[in-house]
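Figure S4 source data
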Amino acid sequence: MHLAVLLVLGALNFTPQKLSVDGRVIWVDAGDFNKDGAPDLVVAFRRGNEPDTKRFVAFFYQQPDGHYSEKANEERPVPPDAAIAAVSDCDGDSVSEVVFMTAQGLSGYFAPGGKLAAGLTEMVKAETATMFPEIEDLPVWDLCADYHRKGREIALWDTGTLAFYRAEGAKWSLVDKLKVTPQAWIDSLASGFFRGAGSNRDLSISAAYVFPEITVGDYEGDGKPDLYVIQEETLRIYGASGGATGDGHYSPTPTVVLNFSIRTQEERNRRGAFVNAMALDLNGDKRTDFVLNKVSGGLASMKSETAIHLNKSGFRKAPDQEVKRSGFSALVQFVDLNGDGLPEMIEPYSDVGLVTLARAMVSKTMSVDWLITKNEGGTFNTKASTEMSISFGLDFSGGPFFKGPFPRFAFDYDGDGLNDFMASPDGSHLHIYLGKKDGFFDGDPGLKLNIDVSPFTSPFYDAKKKRVHIVSFFRDIPGKEGKIVVLLNE
Protein backbone atom coordinates (compact mmCIF):
# COMPACT_ATOMS: atom_id res chain seq x y z
CA MET A 1 0.00 0.00 0.00
CA HIS A 2 1.58 3.27 -1.15
CA LEU A 3 1.50 6.06 1.43
CA ALA A 4 2.81 9.56 0.87
CA VAL A 5 1.71 13.12 1.58
CA LEU A 6 1.57 15.11 -1.66
CA LEU A 7 0.35 18.48 -0.42
CA VAL A 8 0.04 20.09 2.99
CA LEU A 9 -1.64 23.44 3.50
CA GLY A 10 -1.92 25.41 6.73
CA ALA A 11 -2.07 23.35 9.92
CA LEU A 12 -3.17 20.09 8.23
CA ASN A 13 -0.66 17.27 8.33
CA PHE A 14 -1.65 13.60 8.38
CA THR A 15 0.83 10.86 9.23
CA PRO A 16 -0.10 7.36 8.01
CA GLN A 17 0.31 4.32 10.23
CA LYS A 18 -0.28 0.67 9.32
CA LEU A 19 -2.14 -1.78 11.61
CA SER A 20 -3.06 -5.38 10.93
CA VAL A 21 -5.04 -8.34 12.25
CA ASP A 22 -4.69 -12.04 11.49
CA GLY A 23 -7.91 -12.37 9.53
CA ARG A 24 -10.37 -10.44 7.36
CA VAL A 25 -11.57 -7.10 8.69
CA ILE A 26 -15.34 -6.66 9.08
CA TRP A 27 -15.36 -3.16 10.58
CA VAL A 28 -13.32 -0.68 12.59
CA ASP A 29 -14.70 1.63 15.28
CA ALA A 30 -13.29 3.95 17.93
CA GLY A 31 -13.86 4.23 21.68
CA ASP A 32 -12.02 4.81 24.94
CA PHE A 33 -11.46 1.37 26.48
CA ASN A 34 -8.74 2.23 29.03
CA LYS A 35 -10.16 5.50 30.41
CA ASP A 36 -7.28 7.74 29.36
CA GLY A 37 -9.44 10.13 27.32
CA ALA A 38 -7.80 9.11 24.02
CA PRO A 39 -9.53 7.14 21.24
CA ASP A 40 -8.64 3.47 20.99
CA LEU A 41 -9.59 1.37 17.97
CA VAL A 42 -11.59 -1.85 18.01
CA VAL A 43 -11.49 -4.08 14.95
CA ALA A 44 -14.00 -6.83 14.26
CA PHE A 45 -12.56 -9.53 12.02
CA ARG A 46 -13.13 -13.10 10.98
CA ARG A 47 -10.69 -15.95 10.70
CA GLY A 48 -11.14 -19.18 8.76
CA ASN A 49 -13.62 -20.11 6.07
CA GLU A 50 -17.31 -20.91 6.26
CA PRO A 51 -18.66 -23.03 7.94
CA ASP A 52 -15.71 -22.91 10.36
CA THR A 53 -15.41 -19.12 10.49
CA LYS A 54 -14.74 -17.60 13.90
CA ARG A 55 -15.11 -13.90 14.69
CA PHE A 56 -13.01 -11.76 17.02
CA VAL A 57 -12.60 -8.18 18.21
CA ALA A 58 -9.10 -6.73 18.50
CA PHE A 59 -8.25 -3.68 20.61
CA PHE A 60 -5.56 -1.17 19.61
CA TYR A 61 -4.84 1.29 22.43
CA GLN A 62 -3.53 4.74 21.61
CA GLN A 63 -0.02 5.10 23.02
CA PRO A 64 1.23 8.18 24.94
CA ASP A 65 2.83 9.54 21.76
CA GLY A 66 -0.53 9.39 19.96
CA HIS A 67 0.33 6.39 17.78
CA TYR A 68 -0.96 2.80 17.81
CA SER A 69 0.81 -0.55 17.99
CA GLU A 70 1.01 -2.37 14.66
CA LYS A 71 -0.53 -5.47 16.26
CA ALA A 72 -3.47 -5.51 18.65
CA ASN A 73 -2.89 -5.03 22.38
CA GLU A 74 -5.74 -7.40 23.22
CA GLU A 75 -8.06 -9.77 21.40
CA ARG A 76 -11.39 -11.30 22.43
CA PRO A 77 -13.70 -13.84 20.74
CA VAL A 78 -17.11 -12.80 19.46
CA PRO A 79 -19.95 -15.00 20.80
CA PRO A 80 -20.89 -17.55 18.10
CA ASP A 81 -24.56 -16.54 18.33
CA ALA A 82 -23.92 -12.77 18.14
CA ALA A 83 -25.94 -11.21 15.31
CA ILE A 84 -25.36 -7.48 15.96
CA ALA A 85 -22.67 -5.42 17.69
CA ALA A 86 -22.52 -1.92 19.17
CA VAL A 87 -19.49 0.14 20.26
CA SER A 88 -20.37 2.86 22.73
CA ASP A 89 -20.36 3.98 26.34
CA CYS A 90 -23.65 2.28 27.17
CA ASP A 91 -23.57 2.59 30.98
CA GLY A 92 -22.35 6.20 31.20
CA ASP A 93 -19.08 5.52 33.05
CA SER A 94 -16.92 7.30 30.42
CA VAL A 95 -15.47 3.96 29.25
CA SER A 96 -16.58 2.32 26.00
CA GLU A 97 -17.94 -1.19 25.66
CA VAL A 98 -18.43 -3.65 22.81
CA VAL A 99 -21.95 -5.03 23.14
CA PHE A 100 -23.43 -8.02 21.30
CA MET A 101 -27.09 -8.80 20.63
CA THR A 102 -28.11 -12.43 20.35
CA ALA A 103 -31.52 -14.09 20.21
CA GLN A 104 -31.38 -14.42 24.02
CA GLY A 105 -30.37 -10.87 24.97
CA LEU A 106 -27.34 -8.61 25.38
CA SER A 107 -23.80 -9.17 26.62
CA GLY A 108 -20.58 -7.27 26.21
CA TYR A 109 -16.92 -6.69 26.91
CA PHE A 110 -16.61 -4.10 29.67
CA ALA A 111 -13.52 -2.31 30.95
CA PRO A 112 -14.21 -1.34 34.59
CA GLY A 113 -11.69 1.23 35.73
CA GLY A 114 -10.09 1.17 32.29
CA LYS A 115 -9.01 -2.51 32.30
CA LEU A 116 -10.66 -4.72 29.71
CA ALA A 117 -12.35 -7.75 31.27
CA ALA A 118 -11.24 -11.19 30.12
CA GLY A 119 -14.77 -12.49 29.62
CA LEU A 120 -18.21 -11.33 28.59
CA THR A 121 -20.59 -9.63 31.01
CA GLU A 122 -24.23 -10.63 30.71
CA MET A 123 -26.41 -7.50 30.57
CA VAL A 124 -29.99 -8.39 29.67
CA LYS A 125 -31.74 -11.75 29.25
CA ALA A 126 -34.69 -11.27 26.89
CA GLU A 127 -35.89 -12.40 23.49
CA THR A 128 -34.67 -10.14 20.72
CA ALA A 129 -35.44 -9.62 17.04
CA THR A 130 -32.33 -11.53 15.99
CA MET A 131 -32.52 -15.27 15.46
CA PHE A 132 -29.54 -16.65 13.57
CA PRO A 133 -26.22 -14.84 13.14
CA GLU A 134 -24.56 -14.34 9.77
CA ILE A 135 -21.28 -15.95 10.68
CA GLU A 136 -19.34 -14.13 7.93
CA ASP A 137 -20.49 -10.71 9.11
CA LEU A 138 -21.26 -8.72 12.27
CA PRO A 139 -23.42 -5.66 11.52
CA VAL A 140 -23.01 -2.62 13.74
CA TRP A 141 -26.17 -1.02 15.15
CA ASP A 142 -26.03 2.14 17.24
CA LEU A 143 -28.00 0.78 20.21
CA CYS A 144 -26.79 3.12 22.99
CA ALA A 145 -27.92 6.73 23.46
CA ASP A 146 -29.55 9.14 25.91
CA TYR A 147 -33.04 8.10 24.87
CA HIS A 148 -34.91 9.70 27.80
CA ARG A 149 -32.45 12.56 28.41
CA LYS A 150 -31.67 11.01 31.77
CA GLY A 151 -28.41 9.27 30.95
CA ARG A 152 -27.09 6.54 28.70
CA GLU A 153 -29.35 3.59 27.87
CA ILE A 154 -29.40 0.67 25.50
CA ALA A 155 -32.23 -0.21 23.12
CA LEU A 156 -33.32 -3.80 22.55
CA TRP A 157 -35.63 -4.81 19.72
CA ASP A 158 -37.83 -7.83 19.39
CA THR A 159 -40.35 -8.41 16.61
CA GLY A 160 -43.09 -6.33 18.25
CA THR A 161 -41.58 -4.11 20.93
CA LEU A 162 -38.75 -1.69 21.58
CA ALA A 163 -37.36 -1.83 25.12
CA PHE A 164 -34.89 0.48 26.86
CA TYR A 165 -32.57 -0.60 29.66
CA ARG A 166 -30.42 1.56 31.93
CA ALA A 167 -27.48 0.48 34.09
CA GLU A 168 -27.94 0.76 37.85
CA GLY A 169 -24.63 -0.39 39.20
CA ALA A 170 -24.02 -3.88 37.82
CA LYS A 171 -27.71 -4.40 37.05
CA TRP A 172 -29.55 -3.36 33.88
CA SER A 173 -33.14 -2.35 34.60
CA LEU A 174 -36.04 -2.00 32.20
CA VAL A 175 -36.92 1.68 31.75
CA ASP A 176 -39.57 1.61 29.01
CA LYS A 177 -41.22 -0.80 26.62
CA LEU A 178 -43.02 0.45 23.53
CA LYS A 179 -45.12 -1.32 20.93
CA VAL A 180 -43.20 -0.91 17.65
CA THR A 181 -43.84 -3.27 14.75
CA PRO A 182 -41.18 -3.60 12.04
CA GLN A 183 -41.95 -3.85 8.35
CA ALA A 184 -41.87 -7.43 7.06
CA TRP A 185 -40.74 -8.60 3.62
CA ILE A 186 -41.50 -12.25 2.95
CA ASP A 187 -40.93 -14.17 -0.26
CA SER A 188 -41.06 -17.81 -1.30
CA LEU A 189 -39.85 -20.00 -4.12
CA ALA A 190 -43.43 -20.44 -5.33
CA SER A 191 -44.08 -16.69 -5.57
CA GLY A 192 -42.95 -16.41 -9.17
CA PHE A 193 -40.07 -15.10 -11.20
CA PHE A 194 -38.64 -11.71 -10.09
CA ARG A 195 -41.43 -11.12 -7.59
CA GLY A 196 -39.18 -10.19 -4.71
CA ALA A 197 -35.84 -10.48 -2.97
CA GLY A 198 -35.84 -14.26 -2.75
CA SER A 199 -37.23 -15.11 -6.20
CA ASN A 200 -35.30 -17.24 -8.66
CA ARG A 201 -33.06 -18.57 -5.88
CA ASP A 202 -32.62 -21.98 -4.31
CA LEU A 203 -34.61 -21.34 -1.15
CA SER A 204 -38.08 -22.21 0.02
CA ILE A 205 -38.89 -18.97 1.82
CA SER A 206 -37.10 -15.78 2.90
CA ALA A 207 -38.10 -13.25 5.54
CA ALA A 208 -36.65 -9.82 6.26
CA TYR A 209 -37.69 -7.45 9.03
CA VAL A 210 -36.95 -3.77 8.47
CA PHE A 211 -36.75 -1.84 11.72
CA PRO A 212 -37.46 1.89 11.84
CA GLU A 213 -35.04 4.69 12.61
CA ILE A 214 -35.50 6.27 16.05
CA THR A 215 -34.65 9.87 16.95
CA VAL A 216 -35.15 11.69 20.23
CA GLY A 217 -36.88 15.00 19.49
CA ASP A 218 -39.39 17.48 20.86
CA TYR A 219 -42.79 17.45 19.16
CA GLU A 220 -44.69 19.87 21.38
CA GLY A 221 -41.89 22.29 22.15
CA ASP A 222 -42.29 21.72 25.91
CA GLY A 223 -38.69 20.68 26.53
CA LYS A 224 -39.67 17.04 27.16
CA PRO A 225 -38.28 14.29 24.94
CA ASP A 226 -40.51 12.62 22.38
CA LEU A 227 -39.49 9.58 20.39
CA TYR A 228 -39.71 9.94 16.60
CA VAL A 229 -40.00 6.48 15.02
CA ILE A 230 -39.44 6.74 11.27
CA GLN A 231 -40.28 4.09 8.68
CA GLU A 232 -40.04 5.51 5.16
CA GLU A 233 -42.92 8.03 4.82
CA THR A 234 -44.65 7.04 8.07
CA LEU A 235 -43.84 8.92 11.27
CA ARG A 236 -44.92 7.64 14.67
CA ILE A 237 -44.34 9.84 17.69
CA TYR A 238 -44.28 8.41 21.19
CA GLY A 239 -44.90 11.36 23.48
CA ALA A 240 -44.04 11.70 27.14
CA SER A 241 -46.66 9.90 29.26
CA GLY A 242 -48.20 11.33 32.40
CA GLY A 243 -49.73 14.50 30.93
CA ALA A 244 -48.25 17.94 31.51
CA THR A 245 -46.01 16.87 34.40
CA GLY A 246 -44.79 13.66 32.80
CA ASP A 247 -43.53 10.57 34.61
CA GLY A 248 -40.23 10.10 32.78
CA HIS A 249 -41.60 7.49 30.36
CA TYR A 250 -42.87 7.40 26.81
CA SER A 251 -46.40 6.42 25.92
CA PRO A 252 -46.37 2.65 25.18
CA THR A 253 -48.25 3.30 21.92
CA PRO A 254 -47.90 6.19 19.44
CA THR A 255 -49.54 9.46 20.42
CA VAL A 256 -49.23 10.76 16.84
CA VAL A 257 -49.23 8.73 13.60
CA LEU A 258 -48.67 10.52 10.28
CA ASN A 259 -48.31 9.16 6.77
CA PHE A 260 -46.97 11.84 4.46
CA SER A 261 -47.72 9.86 1.27
CA ILE A 262 -44.78 11.15 -0.72
CA ARG A 263 -45.07 8.15 -3.06
CA THR A 264 -47.80 7.96 -5.68
CA GLN A 265 -50.09 4.95 -5.75
CA GLU A 266 -48.29 3.66 -8.85
CA GLU A 267 -44.94 3.93 -7.06
CA ARG A 268 -46.37 2.01 -4.11
CA ASN A 269 -47.72 -0.73 -6.37
CA ARG A 270 -44.47 -1.10 -8.28
CA ARG A 271 -42.24 -0.65 -5.21
CA GLY A 272 -40.03 1.42 -7.45
CA ALA A 273 -39.32 4.46 -5.27
CA PHE A 274 -36.56 4.91 -2.71
CA VAL A 275 -37.73 6.91 0.33
CA ASN A 276 -35.59 8.19 3.18
CA ALA A 277 -36.65 10.45 6.05
CA MET A 278 -35.09 12.24 9.00
CA ALA A 279 -36.17 14.27 12.01
CA LEU A 280 -34.29 17.40 13.11
CA ASP A 281 -34.84 21.04 14.11
CA LEU A 282 -34.50 23.10 10.94
CA ASN A 283 -35.45 26.60 12.13
CA GLY A 284 -34.13 26.74 15.70
CA ASP A 285 -37.54 26.89 17.42
CA LYS A 286 -36.74 23.80 19.58
CA ARG A 287 -39.45 21.76 17.80
CA THR A 288 -38.36 18.75 15.76
CA ASP A 289 -39.21 19.00 12.06
CA PHE A 290 -39.41 16.26 9.43
CA VAL A 291 -37.79 15.85 5.99
CA LEU A 292 -38.49 13.20 3.35
CA ASN A 293 -36.45 12.43 0.26
CA LYS A 294 -37.69 10.34 -2.65
CA VAL A 295 -35.98 9.01 -5.78
CA SER A 296 -38.20 7.39 -8.41
CA GLY A 297 -38.21 6.37 -12.06
CA GLY A 298 -35.78 4.34 -14.13
CA LEU A 299 -32.55 5.35 -15.81
CA ALA A 300 -34.39 7.20 -18.57
CA SER A 301 -36.81 9.04 -16.25
CA MET A 302 -35.18 9.32 -12.83
CA LYS A 303 -36.35 12.20 -10.65
CA SER A 304 -35.91 13.25 -7.04
CA GLU A 305 -37.95 15.17 -4.50
CA THR A 306 -37.18 16.52 -1.04
CA ALA A 307 -40.20 17.50 1.06
CA ILE A 308 -39.67 19.74 4.09
CA HIS A 309 -42.31 19.68 6.85
CA LEU A 310 -41.91 22.28 9.59
CA ASN A 311 -43.40 21.53 12.99
CA LYS A 312 -45.75 24.48 13.52
CA SER A 313 -47.55 23.12 16.58
CA GLY A 314 -47.94 19.98 14.52
CA PHE A 315 -47.43 18.93 10.89
CA ARG A 316 -49.47 19.53 7.80
CA LYS A 317 -49.71 16.80 5.21
CA ALA A 318 -48.62 19.20 2.48
CA PRO A 319 -44.94 20.14 2.75
CA ASP A 320 -43.86 23.67 3.59
CA GLN A 321 -41.29 23.41 0.79
CA GLU A 322 -40.62 20.98 -2.03
CA VAL A 323 -37.29 20.70 -3.82
CA LYS A 324 -37.58 18.78 -7.10
CA ARG A 325 -34.69 17.64 -9.26
CA SER A 326 -34.60 15.88 -12.61
CA GLY A 327 -32.09 13.13 -11.93
CA PHE A 328 -30.59 11.48 -8.86
CA SER A 329 -30.53 13.46 -5.60
CA ALA A 330 -30.63 11.15 -2.59
CA LEU A 331 -28.70 10.89 0.70
CA VAL A 332 -29.43 14.55 1.45
CA GLN A 333 -27.61 15.91 4.50
CA PHE A 334 -28.40 18.81 6.82
CA VAL A 335 -25.34 20.27 8.55
CA ASP A 336 -24.56 23.70 10.02
CA LEU A 337 -21.76 24.89 7.74
CA ASN A 338 -21.52 28.59 8.60
CA GLY A 339 -21.83 28.43 12.39
CA ASP A 340 -25.19 30.23 12.71
CA GLY A 341 -26.87 27.31 14.47
CA LEU A 342 -29.10 26.37 11.51
CA PRO A 343 -28.33 23.36 9.27
CA GLU A 344 -27.69 23.95 5.58
CA MET A 345 -29.12 21.54 2.99
CA ILE A 346 -26.51 19.50 1.08
CA GLU A 347 -27.76 17.60 -1.97
CA PRO A 348 -25.59 15.24 -4.01
CA TYR A 349 -26.96 15.51 -7.53
CA SER A 350 -26.26 13.72 -10.80
CA ASP A 351 -28.19 13.73 -14.06
CA VAL A 352 -28.41 9.95 -14.29
CA GLY A 353 -29.43 8.45 -17.63
CA LEU A 354 -28.44 5.78 -20.12
CA VAL A 355 -25.84 8.02 -21.77
CA THR A 356 -24.39 9.07 -18.41
CA LEU A 357 -24.19 5.45 -17.27
CA ALA A 358 -22.49 4.40 -20.50
CA ARG A 359 -19.89 7.13 -20.08
CA ALA A 360 -19.33 6.13 -16.47
CA MET A 361 -18.80 2.50 -17.44
CA VAL A 362 -16.19 3.48 -20.02
CA SER A 363 -14.36 6.07 -17.91
CA LYS A 364 -15.02 4.34 -14.56
CA THR A 365 -15.72 7.76 -13.08
CA MET A 366 -18.83 9.76 -12.26
CA SER A 367 -19.19 13.46 -11.62
CA VAL A 368 -21.49 14.44 -8.76
CA ASP A 369 -22.65 18.01 -8.16
CA TRP A 370 -22.94 18.99 -4.51
CA LEU A 371 -25.66 21.60 -4.13
CA ILE A 372 -25.34 23.53 -0.87
CA THR A 373 -28.24 25.78 0.11
CA LYS A 374 -28.19 28.23 3.01
CA ASN A 375 -30.81 27.81 5.71
CA GLU A 376 -32.88 30.98 6.02
CA GLY A 377 -34.94 30.26 9.11
CA GLY A 378 -36.19 26.87 7.92
CA THR A 379 -36.56 27.76 4.24
CA PHE A 380 -34.05 27.13 1.47
CA ASN A 381 -33.60 29.39 -1.57
CA THR A 382 -32.40 26.83 -4.10
CA LYS A 383 -31.85 29.53 -6.74
CA ALA A 384 -28.96 30.78 -4.59
CA SER A 385 -27.38 27.35 -4.02
CA THR A 386 -23.61 26.95 -4.12
CA GLU A 387 -22.47 24.19 -6.47
CA MET A 388 -19.36 22.02 -6.28
CA SER A 389 -18.59 19.34 -8.85
CA ILE A 390 -16.46 16.37 -7.72
CA SER A 391 -15.49 13.30 -9.72
CA PHE A 392 -15.47 9.89 -8.08
CA GLY A 393 -13.79 6.70 -9.21
CA LEU A 394 -16.18 3.76 -9.67
CA ASP A 395 -15.64 0.09 -8.91
CA PHE A 396 -17.78 -2.16 -11.15
CA SER A 397 -16.57 -5.47 -9.69
CA GLY A 398 -19.73 -5.71 -7.59
CA GLY A 399 -21.37 -2.33 -7.97
CA PRO A 400 -20.97 0.28 -9.17
CA PHE A 401 -19.56 1.64 -5.91
CA PHE A 402 -17.46 4.67 -5.12
CA LYS A 403 -13.82 3.64 -4.72
CA GLY A 404 -13.44 5.98 -1.78
CA PRO A 405 -15.61 7.34 1.06
CA PHE A 406 -18.96 8.98 0.49
CA PRO A 407 -18.56 12.61 1.65
CA ARG A 408 -19.96 13.41 5.09
CA PHE A 409 -19.92 17.00 6.29
CA ALA A 410 -19.87 16.49 10.06
CA PHE A 411 -16.18 16.81 11.00
CA ASP A 412 -13.71 19.69 11.40
CA TYR A 413 -10.26 18.53 10.28
CA ASP A 414 -8.32 21.79 10.63
CA GLY A 415 -9.80 22.96 13.96
CA ASP A 416 -11.23 26.27 12.74
CA GLY A 417 -14.77 25.53 13.94
CA LEU A 418 -16.16 24.91 10.45
CA ASN A 419 -17.10 21.51 9.05
CA ASP A 420 -14.95 20.00 6.29
CA PHE A 421 -15.32 16.86 4.20
CA MET A 422 -13.17 14.26 2.45
CA ALA A 423 -13.54 12.54 -0.92
CA SER A 424 -11.48 10.36 -3.25
CA PRO A 425 -11.35 10.95 -7.01
CA ASP A 426 -9.98 7.50 -7.85
CA GLY A 427 -9.43 5.32 -4.75
CA SER A 428 -5.69 6.12 -4.84
CA HIS A 429 -5.86 9.65 -3.45
CA LEU A 430 -7.73 11.24 -0.55
CA HIS A 431 -8.74 14.91 -0.78
CA ILE A 432 -9.90 17.04 2.14
CA TYR A 433 -11.99 20.12 1.37
CA LEU A 434 -11.95 22.90 3.97
CA GLY A 435 -14.99 24.85 5.05
CA LYS A 436 -15.27 28.63 4.64
CA LYS A 437 -17.70 30.80 6.54
CA ASP A 438 -18.65 32.88 3.49
CA GLY A 439 -18.48 30.44 0.57
CA PHE A 440 -19.00 27.19 2.51
CA PHE A 441 -16.04 25.41 0.83
CA ASP A 442 -12.88 26.05 -1.11
CA GLY A 443 -13.21 24.78 -4.66
CA ASP A 444 -9.85 23.02 -4.42
CA PRO A 445 -8.92 20.54 -1.70
CA GLY A 446 -6.88 21.86 1.20
CA LEU A 447 -5.00 18.58 1.47
CA LYS A 448 -4.16 15.81 -0.99
CA LEU A 449 -2.91 12.45 0.20
CA ASN A 450 -1.45 9.81 -2.09
CA ILE A 451 -2.95 6.76 -0.42
CA ASP A 452 -5.10 3.78 -1.30
CA VAL A 453 -8.51 4.21 0.32
CA SER A 454 -11.75 2.27 0.21
CA PRO A 455 -15.44 3.04 0.76
CA PHE A 456 -14.74 1.94 4.37
CA THR A 457 -12.92 5.16 5.27
CA SER A 458 -14.15 7.06 8.32
CA PRO A 459 -13.11 9.95 10.55
CA PHE A 460 -12.94 9.59 14.33
CA TYR A 461 -12.51 12.25 17.01
CA ASP A 462 -9.61 12.46 19.44
CA ALA A 463 -10.99 14.31 22.49
CA LYS A 464 -7.59 14.35 24.17
CA LYS A 465 -5.82 16.09 21.29
CA LYS A 466 -8.96 17.80 19.97
CA ARG A 467 -8.26 16.53 16.47
CA VAL A 468 -10.01 14.37 13.88
CA HIS A 469 -8.12 11.33 12.60
CA ILE A 470 -9.07 8.97 9.74
CA VAL A 471 -9.09 5.18 9.49
CA SER A 472 -9.48 3.09 6.32
CA PHE A 473 -9.60 -0.65 5.56
CA PHE A 474 -10.50 -2.96 2.69
CA ARG A 475 -13.05 -5.75 2.91
CA ASP A 476 -12.40 -9.02 1.07
CA ILE A 477 -9.75 -7.59 -1.26
CA PRO A 478 -7.01 -10.22 -1.80
CA GLY A 479 -3.81 -9.19 -0.05
CA LYS A 480 -5.50 -6.41 1.93
CA GLU A 481 -8.12 -8.26 4.03
CA GLY A 482 -6.39 -7.76 7.38
CA LYS A 483 -4.75 -4.38 6.78
CA ILE A 484 -5.82 -1.09 8.34
CA VAL A 485 -4.41 2.39 7.77
CA VAL A 486 -4.76 5.15 10.34
CA LEU A 487 -4.12 8.75 9.23
CA LEU A 488 -3.08 10.64 12.36
CA ASN A 489 -3.89 14.34 12.26
CA GLU A 490 -0.72 15.81 13.75
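Figure S5 source data
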Amino acid sequence: MTAPTASAYSPADDPQRHNRVLLHAWQATHPVLYCGRQRFIQGLRFMTEGSALDAAVYLTGNPQPVPAVEVTLFTRPESHEPQTD
Protein backbone atom coordinates (compact mmCIF):
# COMPACT_ATOMS: atom_id res chain seq x y z
CA MET A 1 0.00 0.00 0.00
CA THR A 2 1.34 3.42 -0.90
CA ALA A 3 0.80 6.68 0.92
CA PRO A 4 -1.30 9.43 -0.69
CA THR A 5 0.66 11.99 -2.64
CA ALA A 6 1.26 15.44 -1.24
CA SER A 7 -0.07 17.13 -4.37
CA ALA A 8 -3.53 15.56 -3.93
CA TYR A 9 -4.51 18.05 -1.21
CA SER A 10 -3.33 21.09 0.69
CA PRO A 11 -2.37 20.68 4.38
CA ALA A 12 -3.91 24.06 5.17
CA ASP A 13 -7.22 23.12 3.49
CA ASP A 14 -7.56 19.65 5.06
CA PRO A 15 -5.49 19.42 8.27
CA GLN A 16 -7.17 16.19 9.48
CA ARG A 17 -6.25 14.40 6.26
CA HIS A 18 -2.72 15.78 6.51
CA ASN A 19 -2.44 14.39 10.06
CA ARG A 20 -3.56 10.96 8.78
CA VAL A 21 -1.01 11.10 5.95
CA LEU A 22 1.76 11.95 8.43
CA LEU A 23 0.66 9.13 10.74
CA HIS A 24 0.79 6.68 7.82
CA ALA A 25 4.22 8.01 6.77
CA TRP A 26 5.49 7.44 10.31
CA GLN A 27 4.07 3.92 10.51
CA ALA A 28 5.37 2.96 7.06
CA THR A 29 8.72 4.80 7.47
CA HIS A 30 7.94 6.84 4.36
CA PRO A 31 10.22 9.88 3.89
CA VAL A 32 8.87 13.41 4.31
CA LEU A 33 10.17 16.83 3.27
CA TYR A 34 10.99 19.64 5.67
CA CYS A 35 12.77 22.80 4.48
CA GLY A 36 13.53 21.07 1.19
CA ARG A 37 15.35 18.16 2.86
CA GLN A 38 14.27 14.56 3.05
CA ARG A 39 13.70 13.38 6.64
CA PHE A 40 11.95 10.60 8.51
CA ILE A 41 9.41 11.02 11.29
CA GLN A 42 10.72 10.01 14.74
CA GLY A 43 7.44 10.73 16.51
CA LEU A 44 4.14 12.56 16.40
CA ARG A 45 2.32 14.43 19.14
CA PHE A 46 -1.37 15.18 18.69
CA MET A 47 -3.08 17.84 20.80
CA THR A 48 -6.44 19.52 20.79
CA GLU A 49 -6.87 23.25 20.35
CA GLY A 50 -10.54 24.01 20.84
CA SER A 51 -12.39 21.76 18.42
CA ALA A 52 -9.36 21.21 16.16
CA LEU A 53 -6.74 18.50 16.37
CA ASP A 54 -3.20 19.81 15.87
CA ALA A 55 -0.01 17.81 15.41
CA ALA A 56 3.65 18.37 16.16
CA VAL A 57 6.16 16.29 14.23
CA TYR A 58 9.54 15.14 15.54
CA LEU A 59 11.99 14.51 12.69
CA THR A 60 15.29 12.67 12.56
CA GLY A 61 18.18 15.01 13.28
CA ASN A 62 15.99 17.69 14.86
CA PRO A 63 15.21 17.59 18.61
CA GLN A 64 12.58 20.35 18.36
CA PRO A 65 8.98 19.66 17.28
CA VAL A 66 7.94 20.99 13.89
CA PRO A 67 4.38 22.12 13.05
CA ALA A 68 2.66 19.51 10.87
CA VAL A 69 1.79 22.06 8.17
CA GLU A 70 5.51 22.58 7.50
CA VAL A 71 6.06 18.90 6.64
CA THR A 72 5.01 17.35 3.32
CA LEU A 73 5.09 13.82 2.00
CA PHE A 74 8.14 13.05 -0.12
CA THR A 75 7.31 11.71 -3.58
CA ARG A 76 9.97 10.43 -5.93
CA PRO A 77 9.91 12.05 -9.36
CA GLU A 78 8.79 9.66 -12.07
CA SER A 79 11.43 8.62 -14.53
CA HIS A 80 10.51 9.28 -18.14
CA GLU A 81 13.42 7.33 -19.59
CA PRO A 82 12.48 4.48 -21.90
CA GLN A 83 13.01 1.01 -20.49
CA THR A 84 15.38 -1.28 -22.35
CA ASP A 85 15.20 -5.02 -22.09
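The first strand starts at residue 32 and ends at 34. The radius of gyration is 14 Å.
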